[in-house]
Amino acid sequence: MITVEVRGDVEQALRFLKKKLQLDGMKKELKRREYYEKPSDKRRRKSTESKRKLRKLMHRMTRG
User: Fold this and answer.
1) For residue 8, what is the enclosing H or E element?
2) How many Å apart are CA 37 and CA 5, to the nearest integer?
3) Rounded CA gap, 59 and 54, in Å?
């Protein structure tokens, strides 16, 4: 459960909450679940995500 303690400035607390949701992946998950996704589209999305993740990892390995 994600919690943010408000100590005065509500706008700042909202920014912290949005940042935590983004880092947790919750925001992306909610956006993805907003509409029905066909199983074929789900497989295609997962495949492209894994390729992107692998490419990013390989790029980091060659740079450093």
Assistant:
1) none
2) 35
3) 9
